[in-house]
Amino acid sequence: MPDTAGKIRVLHFVTGGFSGGATQVAISLVRAALDSEHITPMLVLRKKRRGDPARIRELQEQGLPVAVVPGWSKIATILALVKLCKAQQPDVLVAHGFSEHLWGRYAGLLAKVPVLVHVEHNTKERYNRWRLAQSRWLSQRTDAIVGCSEGVKSVLLSQGMPAERCHAISNGINTTPFNQAVPSLAERQPNIVMVSRFSKQKDHATLFRALALLKPQGITPKLLLAGGGKSLHRKPLEKLATTLGIAEQVQFLGVVRNVPELLQQNQLSVLSSHYEGMPLALLEGMAAGCIAIGSAVPGIQEVLREGEDGFLVTENDASALADRIKYCLQHSNELQLVADAGRSRALTEFSRERMNQQYEALFVQLARQVSTGKGV
Asked: Is the pTM of this model over 0.85?
């Protein structure tokens, strides 16, 4: 039942790694719901060995209700989450991302949470047969399965998830840092920003090779890399930059807390990737007024309309990416309209407010259906 104020209690469960979009979306939804007339939110993070306790304290200091459950084993995670659910009595449990959506829903079933929601944040995950079988079994006991884009929803349907329970709600960004007027392209540095963690999913290597192809032509933009991730993935890239002779152009900035400012100082926002769900980093680049360039893969293809509000480049094609970067840098004044269109689209179609409204409407609908005994 809803709490004494008549609000629906919604618990968001997600990884506590902070490097991926799933955690950022969950935090955004909890933050937005603090002012909701219909929802009382809570954020539950699965502890990660490399997690940053300072980030958790920061969220708590900002007034977000945050709890942390163990992450050293799946059973420990599930049992701790069951205990928390029994204490908090949420009306809705939202399990974000792989593999947390499995352990979160198991806990929700054991704790008899009335409504379970699974949010899938990528078009490609580390599913094996056993985990896919678990996801299908859980889907029959889940009230809604949400893809963070139409592309992700299509993948869910291809996996055999029940069509009547599948939804698509696009990720949204916090538009507040981008609402003021931004510098024109002519006022910015002719450099590239890529905001991304270091992982197998992201394709920094192709971007590096593109820069190496441009260097003999006298085109040597700086590449500013903002993002964390494992040294396992970063170290080979540092070596590759040296091998390709572009080390002096590439700056590994680590986790950057002023991404909007960084983007607004530079002309190009590039996301070279193998697959995406709904790329928040690229949306922020568009909102900042950059010329956006992305790999032509699911997720990114949903965000960029070729030549209208950004540019798409064939995945793994360093030559094509080099050509596109060269064109954009040499014709930046002519491409101001493209950058403006991308900014307008990001601020209107992919805002955090719109995302929150759609999730809130779904949660309220599901909770009401349960309370009236109508089912889903």
From this structure: yes
